[in-house]
Design brief:
The complex is a heterodimer of chains A (about 260) and B (about 120). With about 260 residues, chain A is α+β, with helices and mostly antiparallel strands. Chain A has 2 domains: about 50 residues, no CATH class; about 200 residues, Calycin beta-barrel core domain (Lipocalin), CATH 2.40.128.20. Chain A has 7 helices and 12 strands. In chain A, strands 4-3-2-1-12-11-10-7-6-5 form a 10-stranded antiparallel sheet. Chain A has a two-stranded antiparallel ribbon with strand order 8-9. Chain A is globular and about 75 Å long. About 15% of the residues of chain A have low confidence. With about 120 residues, chain B is an alpha+beta fold. Chain B has a single domain, classed as Beta Barrel (OB fold (Dihydrolipoamide Acetyltransferase, E2P)), CATH 2.40.50. Classes of the chains: A alpha+beta (about 260), B alpha+beta (about 120). Chains A and B meet through loops of A and α2, α3, β3 and α4 of B.
């Protein structure tokens, strides 16, 4: 099949972006399948296409980065590595009073580890080339992190309004992982749950979260480096599973959350 | 047979999330999982919330004195996903509740409840 407009193209060699003209000029064949494409683009619009083709950069975001997107629900492994407390850290742990000190009574997350380890909550992750967004059902935490280059000097950081223990974070991709670094945290607790309740977090805590996906399993490894309270980094590892559950509002109320005893 | 099927349908999806419920809200920290207590009383308040839901119950002791108990359950989102029949609980109902006693007086974590009509439910 020949392009029905070949003759038109030949008479008007300056016509731009008429597909059959472009390919027919280069083609050494009498017939070229591209010649079946017959469209004519106005010249200004055509130059716009050319400029876009020249200056547009490919979307390097999702094509080369781990796909963490979707809804995830806590399930599977929850492990604490060995911890070694300083004297001050030990005093902080011993001083913890579950009746009064749990920040959840005030609808506050005690730390990122505590936010991640809450059972049966959904986290929705959405990714674009420049940002990764975490919508945590727990305390309705919405975390939108700009993606930076690893080891970038003075990267932009974001904090969560009303959640002082969650500090300020920045994120980058490292091969098959998303890495999130958090500093400038307020005092809190690595955990208020189970046998780890009361492990403290000082203002000097630096937390690195590393997220890696394997099929329908998301592994989050949190490394806590807090020289005020810990003699060596504390590693917490937990898992989330892909889920069809939708994100629900948590809608914590401090007035309700603080009720823990009868009248 | 039909009642058994209904009860199974109520209990199974909830039990599937049992591990998470047991770990909810520092359960081990707040409640003594080594023993159980049972109370019978009248439901005076029902609150379905996150991070935890609760009942208030008026319980009358052997001496005739009535005291209030606080009964804690899991987060309302968790209970909703598990299909726990929250609408079943109505203020004024008489319930028997068994659970782990709390480290605060007259508090507990609900493990099983028997409704007025005899049905047993486990969150």
């Amino acid at each position: 099949m020949r392009c029905s407009r070949l003759r038109t193209c030949a008479r008007n060699p300056k016509s731009v972006a008429t597909a059959c003209c472009l390919v027919s000029r280069r083609s050494t064949l009498g017939w070229n399948p591209w010649a079946t494409v017959v469209f004519r683009v106005p010249r200004p619009l055509a130059w716009l296409f050319v400029a876009a083709a020249v200056f547009a950069t490919p979307d390097e975001g999702l094509a080369q980065k781990p796909d963490l997107s979707g809804n995830w629900i806590r399930g599977g492994r929850l492990e604490f590595g060995e911890w070694s407390l300083t004297d001050e850290g030990r005093r902080g742990l011993e001083a913890y009073d579950f009746k009064t000190d749990d920040p959840a009574y005030r609808c506050l997350a005690a730390s990122w580890a505590r936010a991640w380890m809450n059972p049966n909550v959904v986290v929705r992750i959405t990714q674009s080339a420049k940002e990764v967004r975490f919508q945590h059902e727990f305390m309705d935490i919405d975390r939108r992190l700009p993606i930076v280059e690893a080891a970038q000097a003075n990267p932009p950081r974001v904090s969560i309004q009303g959640q002082p223990a969650l500090g300020s974070s920045t994120a980058w991709y490292d091969e098959d992982s998303l890495v999130i670094e958090t500093t400038d945290v307020g005092p809190g607790y690595v955990s208020t749950m189970q046998e780890w309740a009361g492990l403290p977090q000082s203002r000097r805590m630096r937390t690195v979260e590393r997220l890696r996906r394997s099929g329908d399993l998301l592994t989050i490894e949190l490394t806590h480096d807090d020289p005020a309270y810990y003699r060596k980094p504390l590693v917490v590892t937990l898992e989330y599973k892909k889920t069809d559950f939708e994100l629900m509002k948590y809608d914590c109320s401090p007035e309700e959350a603080s009720i823990v005893a009868p009248r | 047979m039909r009642m058994k099927v209904v009860l199974l349908a109520l209990v199974l999806p909830v039990l599937a999330m049992a591990d998470g419920l047991r770990a909810h809200h520092s359960t081990v920290v707040n409640f003594d999982s080594s023993r159980e207590v049972t109370i019978t009383g009248v439901l005076t308040e029902v609150t379905w919330r996150n991070p935890h839901s609760r009942f208030r119950m008026n319980v009358t002791g052997e001496g005739g004195a009535t005291v209030e108990w606080l009964v804690e359950l899991g987060a309302s989102n968790t209970l909703t996903r598990a299909g726990f029949p929250m609408e079943t609980f109505v203020v004024g109902d008489r319930l028997t509740v068994t659970g782990w006693p709390g480290y605060r007086d007259r508090s507990m974590l609900l493990r099983e409840t028997v409704l007025q009509d005899g049905r047993r439910l486990k969150p």
